[in-house]
Amino acid sequence: MKRTFAITLILALLLALVAVPVGAQDRWDGADDLAVNPLACGMGDEMMDEGDDMEEDMEMMEYDGGMVAMGDDMAGMDITLVDVPKLVGIGYFAATTLGQQQAAEELGNVSVTTDAPTEANIDDQIQVIDSYITAGVDGILFAANDPVAIAPVLRKALEAGIHVVGYDANSEPDAREWFVNQAEFNGIAKALVDSLADQMGAEASFGIVTSTFTTPNQARWIAEMWAYASECYPGLTWLETLEAQEDAVLSFQQAQTLINKYGEDLDGIFAMTSVATPNGADAVQQAGVCEDVAVVGLATPNGMKPYVNSGCVRDVILWNPVDLGYAAVYVMRAVVDGEFQPGDASVSAGRLGDLVVVNGSEVLLGPPFTFTADNINDFDF
Question: Do 142 and 129 touch, CB atoms closer than 8 A?
Fold first, then answer.
């Protein structure tokens, strides 16, 4: 009798789990425990711009970045930097490198070299950083593959008197002095979700192709997307999240997996990397479902021009990665010179003007930018 009851109870629980609507499940993989701050529903671009202006008037959060060990005073002197992005060999980080070189040339007293693995592997990235700590540089720029795993080697750099500034993908705050944030996470999330809902309706079903569940910026975007969609588009249905490791072939295959697995139930694919977006668009185009599946993602314009110009993809969300790399070098130079210190509300960044400090130790590049058929051919990166 007890055995029969136990079996019946287990079956009931399994049926209950199956019966739970997809939209009622927990947040996406990799974003379950992250704090969120979703923007208001239906807020237009003009209101978003006003919100950005209001950042300057908000009360400053206490600085939460790391502190470098005292070393030689390098103010105004020539400095050598190494840039260690997630990986090399893709257009996005080629663009950030270009911006860094532009800034170095303008400043005249900065030398910067980009060196990173050819795959987005955190262990390899740590090894590259560690080798430059041993060799000796004045500053390290980085875009983290994993915010927690990279932190110890960055703290080691700070303890060795090497300045550390992040961009694109953050570490734990105390492991670097400043982080140049390309756009607020909630702003990116809103732009992505609004685009899908506008194209496919407020009850669309979608999948996600991301890099890894631990990649910090993508996990934060996904967390904010979940929060914003839950509040503003509760009818949207999340189907699945797949990892693609910043790999072109795997990104194409994962998009194919979503198309083949869900068929007519798939209305959109969120592509969270500059590799996943064009390859996801290619998969949709080759499958002949451009009219049925919207690809909404983050990518550089050159990789997306064929799909936007053909009409297979309506728009692409991003920022200018050239400016992102450029800003990171200017921030580093200002830190070394002592012109940018904890408690400051802004920092001067050459042609970009003054950039605002947010969230304690982050420098905000600006709001997201939308590339469309009307403007994408005006950009070359």
Answer: yes
Q: 13-43: per-residue pLDDT in tens? A: 333 333 333 343 444 455 556 788 899 998 5
Q: At what angle do helices 91-107 and 321-336 cross, to 10 degrees?
A: 40
Q: Which CATH class is domain 23-52+184-318?
A: alpha beta
Q: Please state the φ and ψ torsions of residue 51, each to the nearest 5 degrees.
A: -65, -35
Strand order of the β-sheet with 110-114 is: 110-114, 79-84, 139-142, 163-167, 178-181, 362-364, 354-358, 346-348
Domain edges within the chain: 23-52+184-318, 60-183+320-366
Residue 78 phi, psi dihedral angles, 5° rounding: -65, 135
The SS3 of residue 10 is helix
Query: If residue 80 lies in a helix (H) or strand (E), which one and from where to where?
Result: strand 79-84
Q: Which fold has domain 60-183+320-366?
A: Rossmann fold (3.40.50)
Q: Which amino acid is at 121?
A: N
Render pLDDT for 289-324 as a digit per residue (tens, 0 to 9). 999 999 999 999 999 999 999 999 999 999 999 999
Can you list the positions of beta strands (E) in 191-314? 205-210, 237-243, 268-271, 294-297
CA proximity to 138, closest of 156, 113, 161, 165: 161
How many whole angstroms separate alpha carbon 221 and alpha carbon 378? 27
Q: How far is CA 8 from CA 13, 16, 18, in A?
A: 9, 12, 15
Do 3 and 188 contact (CB within 8 A), yes or no? no
Contact (Cβ atoms closer than 8 angstroms) between residue 153 and residue 130: yes
Which of 281, 227, 279, 284 has the alpha carbon at shortest distance from 260?
284
Q: What is the CA radius of gyration of the chain?
A: 22
- Check if 23-52+184-318 and 60-183+320-366 are the same fold: yes
